[in-house]
Design a protein that fits this description.
2 copies of one chain form a homodimer.
Chain A: H1 23-33, H2 39-65, H3 70-81, E1 87-88, H4 90-97, H5 101-113, E2 117-121, E3 129-133, H6 135-155, H7 161-181
Antiparallel strand pairs in A: 1-3, 2-3
The structure holds a DNA duplex.
Chain lengths: 193, 193
DNA sequence: CTATCGAACTTTAGATCTGAAGTCTTGAGG
DNA sequence: CCTCAAGACTTCAGATCTAAAGTTCGATAG
């Protein structure tokens, strides 16, 4: 079917045409192209990156069925995690999500138009603005959390309790190391281009 | 020093100015706001997400010192990993990076203008386009890899060889589970909004 | 050889983000 | 009071991405 024989000069990868390489293939390629590489380190890092990407795809699919985007979900999450009465300023939100204040202004515009949050001036200090979760926003967050936990439980299904604990601890140790080295939570997560 | 004194009243976090909560605070908040939550699962997932975010910030800082962006680095990576002669079509690149073909066209425009890649038509099939890494592009990738491996080695510094191996295995098992469930590598990694 | 369909890429319009400049409020000095 | 500096948010211009429409080439069927 796949019109084999296209002259295929050197196609070491069994995958006829260029599909995404498997993790194993990727690490092998790294070793071919870059000698000074610890394959063990690379396996951890590459698996981490791929896993996160897949998870984001999954979350995106779920939130989109709820009529919200992943970016909106992030904002809802930050507000809920701040605890009742679920209020934060645009500046705080921007710091927590790793965005510029300008981007937060735009997001809040959209989310307020959709009724997920309200925006009002702080009467005690009129420079500040207060973004507050609406009941509808909280409901959306709950719904998204229900779907997310199902996915996450499924993701970890093959791991025993001991393995889950171990994995959590190892990841937390790595996280601690980065957070100590990078105390400023800020820093755009995307590019810095 | 862990879990001492949970008695702290209602405002455990110095409410002074809302800074990003720690991982522990975040998980505690999740449990307050969403009863049906397995804290062990949440620790793994939250640590994973935070870790990835921090790593992206670090990579972004590094690549920006080289005069390229993280997005450009992704393209260089895909080309190098494809092996000599470091050529791929825009469509393949788009699939591997989880972008739309349109976005790839734009990226290639920019990267070709900077001399990181060349773009030419495939003479055997003039519908196709071939994107090829230039020597300069390969050099930039090498330089970025050198910086990245230093960072990654530092990140894993506190883990023994056994722990590294274990972590790699656990992550790979999770990855396998998602990739089996989501065979299509595609899917925008960002929003789907 | 010609018509047509499909594949691969590009173009266009609109969405969202960044960086810089602008607006408004507060607080410190004079 | 008045002025000015700093802080918090918004506005604006430009960058990059997505979705959809457009273009071009290749292959298949008369």
């Amino acid at each position: 079917m796949r019109a084999i024989l296209r002259g295929m000069p050197e196609t070491p990868s069994p995958s006829g045409s260029a599909s995404e390489p498997s993790l194993e293939e990727q690490i092998a390629a790294y070793q071919r192209e870059f000698r000074d590489l610890d394959p063990q380190v690379e396996q951890v890092v590459s698996a981490l990156q791929r896993l996160n990407r897949r998870m984001n795809v999954a979350y995106g699919r779920q939130t989109s069925t709820l009529g919200i985007s992943n970016t909106e979900w992030e904002v809802l999450k930050a507000l809920v995690l701040s605890g009742a009465p679920y209020r934060l300023g645009p500046g705080d939100l921007a710091k927590r999500l790793g965005l510029t204040p300008a981007a937060m202004t735009h997001r809040i515009d959209r989310m307020a138009a959709e009724g997920l949050v309200t925006r009002e001036r702080d009467e005690n200090n009129r420079v500040r603005v207060i973004v507050e979760l609406t009941d509808q926003g909280r409901e959306q967050w709950l719904e998204a959390m229900r779907m997310a936990t199902v996915f996450e439980e499924d993701l970890l299904q093959d791991l025993t309790t001991v393995e889950r604990h171990l994995l959590g601890e190892l990841l937390t140790r790595l996280l601690r190391r980065v957070e100590d080295a990078q105390p400023d939570a800020g820093g755009r997560l995307s590019d810095l281009g």
